[in-house]
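During the reporting period the student researcher (J.K.) took over the structure-prediction task from the postdoctoral fellow and processed the backlog of single-chain submissions. One of the processed entries is reproduced below for the supervisory committee.
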Amino acid sequence: MIMRIFITTLVILIMTTTDSAVANVCELDNNSRRQAASAFKAMLNVLRHPRCLNCHGAMNVYEENTSHPGGAQITEETDIFGKTEIIPLGAEACIMCHNMAEGKWVQKVNKNSPIQWANLSDKELWLRLQKARIIVDEASRHTAESTGKLLLSHVQHDFLIDLAFQGNRGMDSGSYMASIGIPQPDPPPMSKQELVEQLRLWIEALGADDTWPDPSCAQVLEESIDGCYWRAMGPGDIAYHDIGSSQGNKPEPARCTQKEAGLGSVCWTTGANGSGGPWCTYKDLPAADIKGGGNPGTLYECSCED
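J.K. obtained the following structure tokens:
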């Protein structure tokens, strides 16, 4: 009985180790990786532009020292016990200046909202767009979990995004800001139609109409410029044949170029003998020949196919 329990526990541990070794696998082919990276980098010209970024975390209109030209959008209220509380103003205050926005121009109070990305890296922004809830009803501003299809529809049809591409902060010549001489800013550096096309190409490359791919696909932003990438092939190992190593649970993109095409790398989530952090070794053999080792990790092949 004790032996049976031991064997069952050992099998579970092996299965868990194998699962963890092959987790976080991006299965995009080479052309899709190139297209996804190229399209996303093009979109950054808009996503990082003030007409987009100010409403997505670069400017906080609820801070007392805000850079918002209209000042802090807050007021104080005192209850019957004499306690004073700072209250954010709503869309009715915003429309005094942003008078083209039909009362919809209002910033999220929560600075950690999923739609805030001013301080995120490019990879973090890639993932944030896949996690943020998407407005699915323009009138009610109701939201749903993000899919590529919903995100594309949102960018195509959202009224506030249309205003952003006009580059006028949602204000016409009769707004208060215009009356005191505040100049109109520049619009984003590409048209809305161009943004929509780059977004479509990104979603197409990811195959993400209904489901986003594994988060590890964001790594394509860091892959080598010649288009080569490390392709996960499942568990594998072989004794010896090491020509280098690195820290981390994925091979370094810079170690996969046309020169290393076809060669393999094996990565583990823990160091040798179960101690230390994740690491990878690089082999002098084709990935297809890396087998038979006693300590399987995740096997990667340096893929450079056209």
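The committee noted the following: The two ends are 56 Å apart (CA to CA).
J.K. will present the remaining backlog at the next meeting.
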